[in-house]
Design brief:
By secondary structure, the chain is mainly alpha-helical. Helices cover 46% and strands 8% of the residues.
C-alpha cells in the first residue's frame, strides 16, 4: 500500500470540509494516493481511461460534481466540464496561452509590473512592506485586464478592491456554509464586468478574446462566458500571488539560495529594460526556486476529488471499487520522503540537475512570476521584518488565506 498516503490527516479528511461549494457529501472520505502514477491515472487526459482500467466507453474518472459545482444550474467551464467539454474548452482557449499570444500580452502585463516597481520605490522608505498585498494587487490587476478587459486598479489606488477583500476575507465561511451570498455577489460582479467588455468590444490580445470571437459559432451562453472569465480570474491571480509570496519567504529564510539568485539576476542583465518575457527564460536558478516553492507551498494544497465510475478502476496498480472518491493531495505528496530527498528543506538545486535529487518528481513555473521576481530582485535588497515560521502560520480553505508577509525593501544603489 505504499502509494497511499498513510497519515490519516490527509487520507481521512471529509470532503465536506474541503468542498469549494460547501455542499456536504455525507460521510464520504477521500482515498488519497501519493505517487506520480496515481496522478496520471486519476487526472490524466491522454488514454487515461485505458491506463486506469476503466470499462469501455468511460474516458476518464469523473469529477465529484458536488465539489466543482457551487450552485444548481452553474454553467460548465474548463474546470467543471467533463472529458469532452474540457477538451473543447482547451482547444478554443489554447491559443491564448501560446508563446505568440504571451508575447502580444506582454505590454498589458508589463505596465502593471512597472507600476508595482514604482509603488515599491515610493513606499519602501516608509518601513516594512506587506508583500502579500503587493503580490495580490499586481496579479489581480493583471488577470482582471486579461480576463475582463479592465483591472481592479489595486496598484493605482494602493488598496484592495472591495470584491477581492470580500472573497478572500471569507474563504473559511464560504467553505463551511457554501457560496450563498458571496457566490451570488461573485456571479453578479463577473457578469457586470464581462458585459462591459462585450459592449465596448475591441480586438485585444487577452485571455477571453478567443471565446468572444467564437461565442456565436460555438453557441456560448453569457453565463458560460462569465464563468470562464471568473475561472481565469482566480486561476491566473491567486496561484501566481501565492507562489510569489511563498518563494519570497522561502528565499529570505534561506540566505544562501537568496544570494545565489541575486547573483544570477544581477549578472544576467545590464539594465532593467532587458528583463522581459524572453530574457527571463535564461534564469535557470530562478526557475528552480519557483519550482521548489511550488513543491513546498502549492497554491492548491488539497486533492481535487474524482469518483470511481461503475466497473471500478486501477490506480497506481491497485484496484479501487466504484463509488470511491479518490484524489492526490499535493501538500502531502510533496513532503513525503518516499517521493523527495530532504522533503521539508528548500533546496532549489533539486531542479537544476543535482545528482542527489534525480529520483525526485518535478514541475514548471510561469513567465509572469519570473519577470515580477526578477525585477524586484534587480531593484531591491530584501529582508524579513518579523521572526517566526510564516509558512507554518498559513490556513488553507481550498485556497490559502495568506497572512501578511512583512519585508524590508532597500533600493539597490548602482
Amino acid at each position: 500500500m505504499g502509494s497511499l498516503v498513510s497519515t490519516s490527516r490527509f487520507s481521512e479528511w471529509p470532503i465536506s470540509s474541503l468542498s469549494w461549494g460547501g455542499l456536504l457529501l455525507g460521510a464520504s472520505v477521500v482515498l488519497a494516493f501519493a505517487d506520480a502514477q496515481a496522478w496520471q491515472d486519476i487526472y490524466g487526459h491522454k488514454v487515461a481511461g485505458k491506463r486506469a482500467g476503466l470499462v469501455p466507453g468511460v474516458k476518464e474518472i469523473p469529477k465529484v460534481r458536488e465539489f466543482y459545482k457551487s450552485y444548481k444550474g452553474q454553467p460548465d467551464t474548463i474546470i467543471t466540464a467533463e472529458h469532452d467539454g474540457h477538451a473543447r474548452f482547451r482547444k478554443i482557449m489554447g491559443p491564448g496561452f501560446s508563446d505568440k499570444s504571451m508575447k502580444a500580452q506582454e505590454p498589458l502585463i508589463t505596465k502593471y509590473i512597472d507600476l508595482l516597481i514604482q509603488r515599491l520605490h515610493q513606499y519602501s522608505a516608509q518601513g516594512p512592506q506587506n508583500m502579500t498585498n503587493w503580490y495580490n494587487w499586481t496579479t489581480f490587476d493583471v488577470i482582471g485586464d486579461l480576463a475582463f478587459g479592465d483591472s481592479f486598479k489595486c496598484l493605482e489606488k494602493v488598496e484592495s478592491h472591495p470584491f477581492i477583500t470580500a472573497i478572500f476575507g471569507s474563504l473559511r465561511h464560504i467553505l463551511m456554509f457554501g457560496f450563498l451570498r458571496k457566490g451570488l455577489m461573485f456571479r453578479a460582479f463577473a457578469q457586470k464586468t464581462l458585459k462591459k467588455r462585450i459592449e465596448s468590444y475591441e480586438t485585444r490580445p487577452d485571455l477571453i478574446e478567443p471565446l468572444l470571437v467564437r461565442k456565436d459559432e460555438d453557441k456560448y451562453s453569457f453565463g458560460q462566458l462569465a464563468g470562464m472569465a471568473s475561472t481565469l480570474l482566480f486561476a491566473g491571480s491567486e496561484t501566481t500571488a501565492s507562489t510569489l509570496t511563498g518563494v519570497t519567504w522561502l528565499l529570505l529564510s534561506n540566505p544562501a539560495a537568496y544570494e545565489k539568485l541575486k547573483a544570477e539576476v544581477r549578472s544576467a542583465f545590464q539594465s532593467e529594460d532587458e528583463i522581459d518575457f524572453t530574457s527571463v527564460n535564461s534564469l535557470g536558478y530562478m526557475l528552480a526556486c519557483l519550482n521548489e516553492s511550488l513543491r513546498l507551498f502549492p497554491p492548491v494544497a488539497i486533492g481535487l476529488p474524482r469518483r470511481i465510475p461503475a466497473g471500478g478502476a486501477t490506480i497506481a496498480g491497485q484496484y479501487v471499487p466504484e463509488g470511491t472518491v479518490v484524489g492526490v493531495y499535493q501538500w502531502a505528496i510533496n513532503r513525503l520522503s518516499s517521493n523527495w530527498n530532504a522533503p521539508d528543506e528548500f533546496i532549489p538545486e533539486r531542479f537544476t540537475g543535482d545528482e542527489r535529487f534525480q529520483t525526485d518528481n518535478q514541475a514548471l513555473a510561469y513567465v509572469e512570476m519570473r519577470v515580477i521576481l526578477a525585477r524586484i530582485i534587480w531593484n531591491f535588497d530584501m529582508e524579513l521584518a518579523e521572526e517566526g515560521d510564516w509558512l507554518a502560520k498559513q490556513d488553507n480553505h481550498l485556497l490559502w488565506r495568506r497572512r501578511p508577509l512583512s519585508v524590508r525593501l532597500t533600493p539597490v544603489q548602482r
